[in-house]
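User: Please predict structures.

Assistant: First:
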Amino acid sequence: MTELTYTGVPASVLRIAAIATRHAYVLKRSPHRLFDVVMWPVVDTMLFGSIGVFASRSAHGAAQVPLYLLAGIVLWHVVYQAQIALSTGFLEETWSRNLLNLFTTPTREWEYMAGVALFGLVKLAVGVGAVAVIAWTVYSFQITSLGFGLLPVVVLLMAIGMAISLFVIGLVLRFGSGAEALAWGILFGIMPISGVFYPVSALPWLIRPLARILPTTHTFVVGQTLARGEPMPWGELGIALGTTAVLVVLAFGYASWMLRVFRERGYVTRYS
């Protein structure tokens, strides 16, 4: 027999509506949770759409697609592994409820970050090495063919990845565990705008101005230019260096600010 309320609506319907409303309120108070819902369709559309535009423009462009894809995926894992290593290193402390213990030790913030970054370099070498070996053995693509110009590209991408992870750490400190999804997805939101697998000219014209202010865009242009066997584009390298330096300064400033707020407001109790 169906249980009815005084309004004549079945009680089960009201309970279902209440649960849905509860989740709607959570989403309203935590808009960063929309990231998973909205970002992936947008990323897929822009990424594969731009690859299609690049491949269809000319026979010359189609011939370069494999080169752009292989160089892009190897270099992409440099920035991705750098970002995810530092982000998950911090998140591990929250998952294990170890933040309070960590703050009671004499360890300074930069010492902790340096320790996590050091171990992250090991994971970075393993992850990127695996991708490079597969690209070489299966597709005969040698990332070392980029020459010594590869070194500044790798350094810049590592710096960018670590800077982005500092933004993620700051968001987790401020908004709690609900912001952890950004650790896995924020970089993929930047990927299609950065022209990792195609030139910026393949992007929709509305997106191009945004792409040109990102340090990732100019760094990947340098890598793609070297992969084509062309000389080092010093202008692009200079822009990449300058924009990366600005990003690193902003990331350190934001993470330090959020850490101060975290301590002053007692947010550490969320993880104890």
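Second:
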Amino acid sequence: MKERDFRASIIITSYNHRGYLIEAIESVLSQTLAPHEILVADDGSSDGSRELIRSYESKYPGLVKGVFQEKNVGIPKNRNAALCVVTGNYVGILDGDDLFLSHKLERQYQALTEHPDASVVYSNFGIVNSDRRPMAVKWGEPQPEGDVFPEVAKVKTGLLRTLVADYQAVKQAGFMDERFPKYDGLWLSIKLAASCRFAYVNDVLLEKREHQTSDSRSNTREENLHDLTGIYRELSPLLSARVGAQERQQIDAVWQQWFSRF
């Protein structure tokens, strides 16, 4: 694949994260392999984020584009609004309080070129605090590539934030499932793994920021169980079609462990 054939649309989703949003946008603008477009999806923020995004649109016409919700609609619906207007052939999603490292797109393009049968690529990511001080790395050891469905089906959370995926594959998977707003990324990752081969970059290419207003910190027990139970129900027929009895038992055991946490 030639560089000109890798047109990556990066969607940045944000809600009242103006203080972090500048860093997120700049981290995509500073990529060593430039993105095709940056779609900044604002979920009805009241902190001046809209004005900030408009200023980037003016400074980078045709490259930075705002997608604005008039009221807060939730993460998956906000992401879907941006996914519907993508013009590139690959897509990645970045939370407005996280950051790409400067070589992310270049390294993932190289991985896709080296694995022409893959239509999705992922990587490790670092977890940092609000001041970007390192806290942990996920994942700490090399991860599988190729057919990764059995691995992703074992509740491999956090995968979406590192993905760059073929846009048509994401579209065929149904974009983000608005029934599961707390785990929409997990469910999309599972569906992509069921239909696509994955490439992998064994390097930290993104920083996930942990802070007091992180979305995951507000999840209630009921919300977690609602989404996970629904995803497990939808996953069941995929497991029956894709894995053997022994592997199915292992996957089911992981899900039961997750349910027991709540």
